[in-house]
Amino acid sequence: MVGKKRKASEKSTEENVTKQSGLTAVANGGKQDETSFPRGGASVLTPLEHKEISIKAAKDLFSGKGGEEPAKKRVKSDKKSSSKKKSKKTEGESAVQSESSASQVIHDLTFKQLTPDTLLLGCISQINELELVVSLPYQLHGVVPITEISDPVTAAVERVANQQEDEDDDENDEEEQRGLPDLKKLFRVGQYVPCRITSVKTRAETKKKNAIELTLRPEAVNRNVPKVDVAPGVALSAYVQSAEDHGYVLSFGIKDLTAFCKNADAEKYIKEYNNGDPLVAGQIVQCVPLEEAEKKRTVKVTLDHDKVANGVVNEPSANVDAVIPGLLVKGTVQSVQENGLSVKFMGLYDATIDTVHLPQASSNYKVGENIQFRTLFCIFDTEPKRIAGTMLSHLVKLSAPQNFTESLSTYGTQLDEVTVTRVAGKKGVFVSIGNLDDVRGFVHISNLSDGRIDKLTKNDETFGVGSTHRARVLGYSTLDAMVLLTTKESTLNDEYMRINDVPVGGDVEGTVVHVGDAGVFVRLSSTIQALVPTLHMSDVKLTHPEIKFKKDSKVRARVLSVDVGKRRVYLTLKRSLLETNLPIIKDWESLEEGLVSHGTIVNIRSNGAVVRFYNNISGFVPASHMTETKVSNLASVFRLGQTVKATVMKLDKADKLMLLSLIKAVQAKREEKKAKKQEKEAKYAVGQTISATIKEIKPTQLNIVLENGREGRVHINEAFTSIDQIKNRRKPLSGNFKKGESIQVKIVGSRDSKTRKFLPISRTGEVKSITECSLDMDNDKVVLEQKDFKIGDQVLGFVKSVEKRRIQLTLGMNTMGQIRNQLVSSKLDYCQNHKFIVGEAVPVEVLSKDEEHHVIELVAQDENIPRIHSIDSVEEGMSGIGLVTKVMQSYGLVVQLCSGVNGRVHRIDLLDKYIENPTESFKEGMLVRYAVAGVDKEKKRIELSLRKCRVEPESVSEEDPKEINSVADIEAGQVLPGYVDNIANSGVFISLGRKVNARIKIAHISDDFVKEWQKVYKVGQLVKCKILHVDMENKQVEATLKKSLVEGIPAPKKKRAQVEDDSDEEMEDASSSDDEEESDNDDEEEDKEEEEGEGEDSDDEMLDVKDIDEDMVESAQKDGSDDDSDESDNDDDDDDQQVDALKLNGGFDWTGQIPDDTNEDDDDDDSSDEESDEEDKKKKNKGKKEQVEDKTAELSTNAPQSAADYERLLVGSPDSSYMWINYMAHQLQLSEIEKAREIGERALSTINFREEQEKLNVWVAMLNLENSYGNDETLEAIFKRACVYCEAEKVYLQLANIYERSNKIDKAEALWQDITKQFSQNPKVWTQFGLFYLKQDNVEGARNLLQRSLKMLPKFAHIETISKFAQLEFKYGEPERGRTIFEGLLSNHPKRIDLWSVFLDMEIKAGDQETIRRLFERVTAMKISSKKMKFFFKKWLQYENEHGTEEDADLVKEKALEYVNSA
Description:
The chain is an alpha+beta fold. The strands form 9 sheets. Strands 1, 2, 3, 4, 5, 11, 12, 13, 14 and 15 form a 10-stranded antiparallel beta sheet that branches.
């Protein structure tokens, strides 16, 4: 028989050739014996000897010795050598368990030990609609999805799924209309099933709890069972394939083998365990073969439970992998251990039986004792392989324990007394429960005490055998038939262990677990978690609830409802429901008509709303009873989750119907408030004097308690009327009052405690308020407002807050003022070092008032501080303390004198001594002492000086260089220090004084010939120059930087030829340039004076051509227009110089921007009359014979000064819009508006028609001109003409921008409306219109515009347009709305990387680190290409390096590494 089984096993598992090759040889030998003795007489070899033969045969086969020796000799040889090689394993032994070990280590089965393909015996504990919950050994639980039961059940599920997808089809045959299989008809609770693990997921993977997924498919459970093992006594799992006339066809999942069960063999099972219903396809059953399978394709089986439970496996399995859970086998005890038994079964295989699965202590068993047990689980993918068994009677008999559900209550039941019956070492103790003999209890060692217990003995003082304890039921293991208990004191004292224990409507305290999409999860006890739905998190909608509800924080809540069936508890955190004094509606029996209670709106309909109370009791409120006035849309007045006070109007307890009203409750509340209001007004009217007690002393107020217990306060300004009353100026209230002191106060009003808004005493009943009181008992006392203060008033202020550049003071209860740091004292040390504290008293004087912005500027009561409130109050010679607001290395400083009044400090005026980089010692925010050096009130410019000779004349020494204020202070031959002010094409300009510059010609820059002379010096550099010539009439100074002249050092000698050539050329250049420049300067100065005189009235009028193309600048450079200005930076060469295309010498700026007084010099351009290097070279090339004065050459380096100059330039550049527009500006400076228009018309007719951009620039200039100097008719005429000759869309956009910059908002908006109609298909039009609205604070207009644009624009432009509007919301609107728009975009287009990138950029600018990091985590969790993922990780790392910590950066690196490893 063994030979047949071996042969059949080999054929059924051909893939295991290596493992079975030895068995094949034995099988062949067995076949010869069968031929010699065809009947009777079994083999004389025991199963163990068969196994040893197999091992030896495998060893010989793999070692290559062949089979020359007879089998018997190999057996004997193997027997002789077996004792010497007990510790060694051969290659053949890898297919079976080691025989050398007399015992195995016994371990618990834990979740961590589980692996896919582990086989277990389970017991169904719960049946759900789409899954089975299976109780596994050692209190584990697994889930069997409906698709892992059998093939017919899976097919039925797929059929239903396909039916739902094709629900629109017309086919409605009966088969397709069947629903999902009813698992409660296919299985029963308590049914034992062998199963295989398909997946094991930890809490980190599921983010909930450990999960074990199982399969009951026979083809998976019986995967390794060969056909030869199918024999009588072997209990196997199978599913019903079909029901026939005489029985059922079953499937084991074993290849080439099916089973058939006659109706007679299934009758008892159907009657006892299937409610008499016939078996259906896909149903899982346990059966026992009635015959050996051998070569049969169909084997007869029985479903009789007694035969299945009592069927014993008599023959060993073909291999250890063929052993499955649920087999009843006989074994022999190999060793007895403290925690169980080690046994051998089938004569070949080792197994363990844990003490938990022994009916008595392991010490009661003896080595060599024969036992019968059932296999419990098998783990074959570990080394060594593990097989465990059980000897518990209910598992051996496959029956449920008796009378358990009738003898013990459910989870959480308190047990007054349990007795320890057995101590299981490091596992725990077994206990008996009262007098219930059939019930076995177990307390794990971790649940014995709140403290740690490592090991127990049966004589333990506390938990020894026979000791009694209080316990509480934690659960019940269906498979182990064991009640799980705890004796922990903390668990025994838990108030809520069962859902039934939680009272509906009761107040509870809990701990926040986490915040999810469904709401806030709160732990009420060690076993109960509750949910706070999103509607009940707060009375107001929370955008970021995770900020309010931190993990592990304590919260007080009220129980809304309890669902015992689903084990769910719902809470509310609404303060309106927690603090209500009204009765709670939680059952229908206590309801009465007229009852008033608080409820929550859960549904809003057109005809009313549904209000829900506690325990899911709801009522309906008709629309007529929701508001006193008729409302067309109730959703606009009420919102879901809103707490309302409702009155029961009608009640039907039988049908559980209730009609509510919100109006009656409102009316009752209004009457109640009115009565309270009248009562309070009588007691606490304004002007009443009452006694109060000081409750708390704060820096700026006294918190007091009035006679009736009501809270009040005395503001610090109401506590003192003069500085003489204050004992301690730093802490006035603490120095004059004590806590608990009784004082007399006068009521002056009330204040809302939430909004802090001051209220008249008559409105105090409407809100929760604090009574405002005063210690000034003057009958004429009134609360001062901002309008009551006048400039020059001396008042007493108290520090409210200290900011970086100012101090906020309270001047009265409702009035604030601010004093700049530079105005707190006339002493610089005090301003710099005095640290103000909140509440400090400061005597101040009102300096200025800004009624529009509600700001009062203050100054200390110090006569030495100048009272400057505007530029009109500034006089030359004033001295004071100012605040440095801007440091410009190339110019100097900007110093704030007071709010809105700034002065400039030239670098010459920073120090008495000249040093390199004088601005380096000054920083923004520094306080400095200044002296006013000059005031130009027409141009609104203030010149300041920080020189000691001005601010501290008494400390001036004779060694300090004298201040140069004008050309008169300079004499020829002087050597003076100065700073390089400008480097122009024709030389270098040195700043010697605030308004005095010296020109250094190219020939006087250096003793040596320098080809690239412009790189020798840089703007701001400290140099020494020697004065060559002073022109007092024209106020011009000529100087030299040659060391030979400045320091008297002889110039280095050159080669003779070179020196002669160079000197000749330099002499010619110098002489010619001197004559030309001197003559030119005379004319230029006269022209400048005339232009300045004529242009004064129009100095503030400017035309705006802001959007002129950059090509204008390039053409202007080519034409050689005004390159040199005293504000230009270092110019490398002629071709690279940058020119402000529309900046004019007369003060006009065609960009429409107001010139920055803090960055411009008051002096005229001294460099405008210089020559360029190119002109010098041209003159050298002409020769020395004939020299002709070329006026056009000068125009390339000098700004045009007259109409003739412009006309000559336009001859060479007729297509340059830059020239034409400057010509127009020149006429405007002369107030020749008509001539400017004529020049514009000439430009349009002269410029070549191909130069579209140049023409557009002129049209824009004319639009600006008409907007500033014309009327609506002239502007409209130019606009219509421009639209004809240019691209209309560009003209429309330019005019809209012109309107906006000139503050003609209404016209701009009307034009934008017209633009969106004319050019509705252009996304740029809509986004620019939206930007316009946002700049005007019309947020709703911009949002409505987005909706309009999506209706007009093509679909392909929607994403870009929505993205642009979201960016505008971030920059100019509400970032939260921009965030919402981006979230909506990304939900529909999650793969658009460009949208993610823009969203991240916007969030980074917004600066919310938690939001930014969550966004980075989301995008890096997406499945995108590695290249794109690299981009986001680099961006994230860069962000953390700049804004985070090293730990944050390391975390990003770890995530990136995880991504790389998982890729």
